[in-house]
Amino acid sequence: MAHDISALARRTGVSVSTIRAWEARYELVRPARSAGGHRLYSDNDAERVALFKELTDLGHRPRDLASLPTDDLARMRSTAQTEPIMFGQLVSALRRAMRLRDRAGFHRHLVAAFALLPPIEAAGLYSFCLQQIGTLWEDGTFSVADEHIFSFTARNVIIAATQTRPTLISAGPIGFATIEGEHHEHGLLAGAFLAASAGVQTVYFGTSIPTDHLAEAARRDALKALLISIVHVSDVGELVRKVMHLGGLLDQGTQLWLACAAGLRPSLIDVAGAAVLHSHAELRARLALIR
Question: What pTM did the predictor assign?
Fold first, then answer.
């Protein structure tokens, strides 16, 4: 059965503007077109949008889900544990604070999440908040100023949580950065928090760092690994050249980790000496080997 976008929104509980944003940003669904050029969605599209919403509400990162087949999304949802009471309460409280533009409440509840939840759940809730902030901006609920201040608040909370984690592993530190031209850091911050929560010393360099400067910093700090986050790419060939150049400059004792969306993985998988990650689970598996 074919549905127009308004019917799809009613069926899934996802706003029209959010569905369009998910199409544009993640290519979540690819609707057919009517003779008049209007979007037409199938029952499978409706199931996919509903599952995507449920899984992102549970803390899964949208870009990790978007490339998965609908059957895989359904299996993930069916095996997902019922939300713990505390997690569910925090989700509701944070949603309410964002909807009411209650910055103090948002800060208080997010600080509580990092203090009370297991690290992977706290990182998932942080990612959920950023997704919600983006959605509120896209549908016009948030102004640009609202989007900036709530994102800034979330950034400060996760940085503070990262800095207060004790270092328990004596191996060299892990560096976190993006290469020149990449300014998106939210996933990078979540990765640094998970590393710090595993007892690993972290060095957060930030965004848009020239490769030569990164290599120099990696040698100076004797990094065990350097994680580069890659979110938006306009020229994949140039990206591969920069990554290969960086890899050639690093000392043999420094591993190069590339955290990227699934769509970029085929282009980077053959970069010599680099480990390509596209989920928090893969990062945690790498961290477990650090000694």
Answer: 0.70
